[in-house]
Design brief:
alpha+beta; Topoisomerase I, Chain A, domain 4; two-stranded antiparallel ribbon; 6 strands
Length: 186
């Protein structure tokens, strides 16, 4: 393993942390409808739990309504029950073979809770990035111990990894600030 390998590995893992943060933030409800909030809902399909997106077509009807079109008509009641029983607080209604899921407007108190949730997700992402930095620095120390690199090279590489960490922490802060603005917009 070389310094370049350590840096590349750290950068790849930090990128994955940012992607995970974005995916987690996409699930946070903002008062506007988006299909991502139904992604984690599981539906009983022929005796086995299946992701909603695999048994129905999920689309946006308008800014506050999600449309769920089951691939099989007999699945409509099961899908409706799964959405109602989820922890999202949504109340779907059937209209023929289409299920409409209106997203209620968020109260000010609920918006503040969502902002706290976003900040918690951001803190988790920062912890993950710092853990990656720690792992990379340990790898560099191991390279010094194995006499593969000098202490000066290790110090320079550690500084570069710190700069990389700082860059990703700033990215996390920007991402969360955007989401907070989106959540607090009425």
């Amino acid at each position: 393993m070389t310094i370049a390998d350590v840096k590349k590995s750290a950068q790849d893992r930090m990128n994955k942390s940012i992607e995970t943060l974005r995916a987690d933030l996409a699930k946070v409800r903002t008062g506007r409808a988006h299909t991502g909030i139904l992604d984690h809902i599981m539906v009983e399909y022929y005796g086995s739990p299946t992701a909603l997106t695999q048994v129905a077509n999920v689309t946006l009807v308008d800014a506050r309504t999600i449309g769920v079109q089951p691939f099989e008509k007999k699945m409509a009641s099961t899908i409706e029950k799964a959405i109602r029983d989820s922890d999202l607080g949504l109340n779907p209604s059937s209209q023929g073979d289409m299920i409409r899921v209106p997203t209620p407007a968020l109260t000010e108190e609920r918006r503040k809770e969502m902002v706290k949730l976003c900040k918690g997700e951001a803190e988790d992402a920062k912890i993950a990035v710092r853990n990656i930095r720690r792992d990379a620095n340990e790898s560099l120390k191991k390279l010094v111990k194995d006499k593969a690199i000098s202490e000066d090279e290790e110090r320079r590489a550690s500084d570069e990894i710190q700069k990389l960490t700082d860059k990703f922490v700033v990215d996390i802060d920007k991402t969360v600030a955007e989401k907070e603005k989106e959540v607090l917009t009425v």
